[in-house]
Amino acid sequence: MLEDFDLKAAVEPLLKWYEKNKRELPWRSQATPYRVWVSEIMLQQTRVEAVKPYFARFMEALPDIQALAQCPQDRLLKLWEGLGYYNRVRNMQEAARTVMEKYQGVMPADYEALLSLKGIGSYTAGAVASIAYGLSVPAVDGNVLRVLMRLTEDDSDIMKQSVRKRTEKALARIMPEGRAGDLNQGLMELGATVCVPNGAPRCEICPWGDMCLARAHGTFDRLPVKSKGKPRKIQEKTVLIIRDQDRVILRQREKKGLLAGMYEFPNEEGLLTPEEALQKVREMNLHPMRIRKLEDARHIFSHVEWHMTGYMIQVDSLTREESGMLFVEIKETEKKYAIPAAFGAYTKYLDLRIGNEKYE
């Protein structure tokens, strides 16, 4: 168990390993509070390689907290397009506005104050406080929980908040003076590159190889213990790609809820037949001329799974103004309107690129 293990003995080998093996990452080269914060929010639920180009573009467009606080939402969502979990960036902007109003545009060098900002939990607060400010506080994420549960052969359920809390307490007791940021990053790095979540861990290059209980007893494949969440709700949808010659219809989603404020193709609940899809288009005061069935697709959110079918429907361009719909030039869409990756299976039918695709 975690509490029975001499964690202090694990600190020095990890720090030496991290110093020699740490990856060169753009947010590490200049570990300012703002850069650490943005990178940690981006890295939630997202791979490092996918984040790198987003981080570079975000920093170029919004180089400081003031720029983030003042950014128009459409532009902000466009910068985040393809990263998913869009509440992350909305919360980040709200927190930036708080920092401008309450802390004169400087992120507070205080763990509890960081924790009070919108969208910042104990892990992100710990990362910013330790990496950017050198404060002796832990930063416990999934990687850290995994490596510590294996090291100490602790079979507690890491999905329980109580397990995270006692892991934070255990780490807080062994934080090396002046090197808390290195220890936290070393733990993250070990979990990302050696004690990996999928497949066998690379025990032969692990700095803890001779002290890891899971390795000694061959139990690494059973650790960490992670209880399953509730099954995702299935929602069936029909996506309508409605276009005239050069334009396509978009509509903006509600300001609250899933994908709030993003732009989407018109879609209907349920899997419609071609005739039902055409009738929906007629109800929009449009005159459909041709219809083509597109592929079925699915997209997984954290709690919901969309099962989609799609139709490409050509309409008479003369009905554009009569419909009151937002007809947008396809190339203009790439520049201005943030379309979530949930519709990625259908953007290719318009040669429309979203997210990182625009830059490849």
From TrEMBL:
<comment type="function">
    <text>Adenine glycosylase active on G-A mispairs. MutY also corrects error-prone DNA synthesis past GO lesions which are due to the oxidatively damaged form of guanine: 7,8-dihydro-8-oxoguanine (8-oxo-dGTP).</text>
</comment>
<dbReference type="InterPro" id="IPR005760">
    <property type="entry name" value="A/G_AdeGlyc_MutY"/>
</dbReference>
<dbReference type="GO" id="GO:0032357">
    <property type="term" value="F:oxidized purine DNA binding"/>
</dbReference>
<dbReference type="InterPro" id="IPR029119">
    <property type="entry name" value="MutY_C"/>
</dbReference>
<keyword id="KW-0227">DNA damage</keyword>
<dbReference type="GO" id="GO:0000701">
    <property type="term" value="F:purine-specific mismatch base pair DNA N-glycosylase activity"/>
</dbReference>
<dbReference type="Pfam" id="PF00730">
    <property type="entry name" value="HhH-GPD"/>
</dbReference>
<dbReference type="InterPro" id="IPR044298">
    <property type="entry name" value="MIG/MutY"/>
</dbReference>
<dbReference type="InterPro" id="IPR003265">
    <property type="entry name" value="HhH-GPD_domain"/>
</dbReference>
<dbReference type="GO" id="GO:0035485">
    <property type="term" value="F:adenine/guanine mispair binding"/>
</dbReference>
<dbReference type="GO" id="GO:0051539">
    <property type="term" value="F:4 iron, 4 sulfur cluster binding"/>
</dbReference>
<dbReference type="Pfam" id="PF00633">
    <property type="entry name" value="HHH"/>
</dbReference>
<dbReference type="Pfam" id="PF14815">
    <property type="entry name" value="NUDIX_4"/>
</dbReference>
<keyword id="KW-0004">4Fe-4S</keyword>
<keyword id="KW-0326">Glycosidase</keyword>
<comment type="similarity">
    <text>Belongs to the Nth/MutY family.</text>
</comment>
<dbReference type="InterPro" id="IPR015797">
    <property type="entry name" value="NUDIX_hydrolase-like_dom_sf"/>
</dbReference>
<dbReference type="GO" id="GO:0034039">
    <property type="term" value="F:8-oxo-7,8-dihydroguanine DNA N-glycosylase activity"/>
</dbReference>
<dbReference type="InterPro" id="IPR011257">
    <property type="entry name" value="DNA_glycosylase"/>
</dbReference>
<dbReference type="InterPro" id="IPR023170">
    <property type="entry name" value="HhH_base_excis_C"/>
</dbReference>
<feature type="domain" description="HhH-GPD">
    <location>
        <begin position="42"/>
        <end position="193"/>
    </location>
</feature>
<protein>
    <recommendedName>
        <fullName>Adenine DNA glycosylase</fullName>
        <ecNumber>3.2.2.31</ecNumber>
    </recommendedName>
</protein>
<dbReference type="InterPro" id="IPR000445">
    <property type="entry name" value="HhH_motif"/>
</dbReference>
<keyword id="KW-0234">DNA repair</keyword>
<dbReference type="GO" id="GO:0006284">
    <property type="term" value="P:base-excision repair"/>
</dbReference>
<dbReference type="GO" id="GO:0006298">
    <property type="term" value="P:mismatch repair"/>
</dbReference>
<keyword id="KW-0378">Hydrolase</keyword>
<keyword id="KW-0411">Iron-sulfur</keyword>
<keyword id="KW-0408">Iron</keyword>
<keyword id="KW-0479">Metal-binding</keyword>
<dbReference type="GO" id="GO:0046872">
    <property type="term" value="F:metal ion binding"/>
</dbReference>
